[in-house]
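Retro notes, item 3 of 5
We never archived the inputs for the 6-O-phosphono-beta-D-glucopyranose complex last cycle. Fixing that now. Sequence and ligand:
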Amino acid sequence: AQKGGYEHFMLKEIFEQPTVIGQTLNVYYNAATGRVAMPALPFKLADITHVTIVACGTSYYAGLVARYWLESLARISVDIDVASEFRYREPVMKKGGLTIVISQSGETADTLAALRYAKSAGQHTLAIVNAPESSMSHEAEATLYTHAGPEIGVASTKAFTTQLTVLACFALALAEAHDTMDEAEMARLTHALAEVPARVSEVLHHSEAIEKLAAKIQHATDMLFIGRGTSYAIAHEAALKMKEISYIHAEAYAAGEMKHSPIALIDEAVPIIAITPHDKLFEKTASNIQEAAARGGRIVVFSDAAGIAQL
Ligand code: BG6
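Structure as it came back at the time:
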């Protein structure tokens, strides 16, 4: 593996995302029909009525995003836990459910133990894995590979976004099997999915602006990441990255929970990083941002054009 002119592997892998998300979509999305296309699976998607997601670290946060998608799009109940808790808490599992383990390496010991537990509890099992020929892909009933290529950086980047790509396709396939979405909504979402590589490229074009912004808050010793819905899950992943890469203490909060204590921490020394695309929860998060600003917090907002225009 070569750094290809980048300062370090993590940066190289961040910039590989449009390509590897595209590669992954090529496998699970049929551009000709405009529909998601799952490979043959040893269980029927229409029979799956409950999903349990288990993973560690960044892979767990990909699962946390997917929980929202599976519930809202396919109307399937979802449990989720970190593998190091799940494997020891003797969870009660109804037979016939589907357990999804998510792992870049396919070897993380706690996730592998969780997979074995789920199998022994009569669950169908599906591994979402990046590394080919891993223990999890051998032991799970089925594997959906992410096509991120080797991830050398210890902090996961492109593996995370390709996990999300596979999980989004899987959620849409489940929705189709359960007939929970109308044609127009399905078409809107598959079209949006196909656009993701181009949209990620656009974001990466802002890298200089992002660097300047980071410089403004680089001396903070604590940060709060807030969001609602899938952005709450992303806030968790962002806080994990901040700790792992910058050694800055960071915490994620559901934006609606701010008033239940973290708001007391807000002053100009603790930047608030709000993740809030212009979705159905935007107005709610915007009002949390205003509350934080009223307490003198320095706010950094990650949104889209429609969101920024309204703030
Ligand atoms: C951690 C890595 O140690 O393991 C994370 O730093 C990763 O980036 C986590 O998400 C879980 O690994 P895996 O291979 O099971 O996804």
